[in-house]
């Protein structure tokens, strides 16, 4: 997997300063890079590490290019360069197109060209698998579901019936797409299940983390638009819509029929109530609880920062007294107004 610096600079569309024939064979962190590695500087606080860095080359900005004595690849966004190069040096095995002998594929299913179907994969009636898509071991694709081209589903992903996704979708192990939404009607203490007759529609270039669940719609579809990234262990309830380019960190949860705008960033562990809307460009700090619609872009947070347990107990007592204190303050304000009047 060795690459010359000349090839790397051309691949990145970046300027090379130094010996273009130098070979690099792996990526490494700035403080651990050795000869044969290429690394990057994206955060100025790590500049001191350049003095002792033993990498064969460093990717950095024009501003910092002269701080490293060895070969440098200069571009405006070194972290983006790292993202692109990671695919060149990815050690994940490359598999040839094949359909494993243990796969169970319905006669009415359609397989595109150059697909990779792993061991014990199940593809149900009328499902469609796009060109160059890979389904790893024990993946299940439900009836009538459609996958686009160049998708990659890791082991044990379950896609229920009536799910549609675009091209270049990546779904990590254990994710469940199209499971029933949490819909029930109560009659005299007895829960009656509501059939979830909608589906799930996922755009292109979407990535879904391990053990994340996306429920199908109750009537209309649950929708994940293009370029959305979802981390591990996220719950997306029925009829949720997530706009283009949004990102959600691990263990977040979104209740039913909520709409999240485009280019939103949802911190880990955040909880978003149902039947509300978040505007485009909303950012939620980790563990934020959202109970109402957010109509303007910006950064939002809830809760309090960490304290010692003894201090937290005192704070909880004061929280309970806030309403009473507010009433007293209002009463005092009226008394002051009367005195000044």
TrEMBL record:
Name by which UniProt lists this protein: UDP-3-O-acylglucosamine N-acyltransferase
Subunit organization: Homotrimer.
EC number annotated for this UniProt entry: 2.3.1.191
SUPFAM superfamilies: Trimeric LpxA-like enzymes (SSF51161)
First-tier enzyme category under EC: transferase
Catalytic activity: a UDP-3-O-[(3R)-3-hydroxyacyl]-alpha-D-glucosamine + a (3R)-hydroxyacyl-[ACP] = a UDP-2-N,3-O-bis[(3R)-3-hydroxyacyl]-alpha-D-glucosamine + holo-[ACP] + H(+)
Family statement: Belongs to the transferase hexapeptide repeat family. LpxD subfamily.
Domain UDP-3-O-[3-hydroxymyristoyl] glucosamine N-acyltransferase non-repeat region: start-end pairs: 22-88
Active site: 238
HAMAP family noted in UniProt: LpxD (MF_00523)
Keyword entries, A-Z: Acyltransferase, Lipid A biosynthesis, Lipid biosynthesis, Lipid metabolism, Repeat, Transferase
Recorded metabolic or biological pathway in which this protein acts: Bacterial outer membrane biogenesis; LPS lipid A biosynthesis
Functional note: Catalyzes the N-acylation of UDP-3-O-acylglucosamine using 3-hydroxyacyl-ACP as the acyl donor. Is involved in the biosynthesis of lipid A, a phosphorylated glycolipid that anchors the lipopolysaccharide to the outer membrane of the cell.
